[in-house]
Q: What sequence folds into this?
């Protein structure tokens, strides 16, 4: 899993929409979807529930996102 994928997950949780998150990340919706599917395959868990009303993290996805936020903060700190 890459730092970029972790950032995408965080942004997707914030936006609650694949199209909005993709736009914010300057990606196509299909590219963002592939990244999330790759993360789900790697972790072996469903991270998001998809519906016609949007996308939201599963319980496991919420826990995963809570765990990656400090990792991303530490990464940004290390870069500074």
A:
């Amino acid at each position: 899993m890459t730092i970029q994928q972790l950032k995408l997950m965080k942004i997707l949780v914030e936006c609650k929409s694949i199209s909005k998150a993709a736009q914010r990340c300057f990606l196509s919706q299909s590219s963002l979807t592939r990244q999330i599917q790759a993360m789900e395959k790697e972790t072996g868990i469903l991270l998001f529930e998809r519906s016609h009303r949007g996308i939201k993290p599963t319980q496991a996805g919420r826990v995963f996102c809570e765990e990656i936020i400090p990792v991303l903060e530490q990464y940004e700190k290390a870069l500074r």
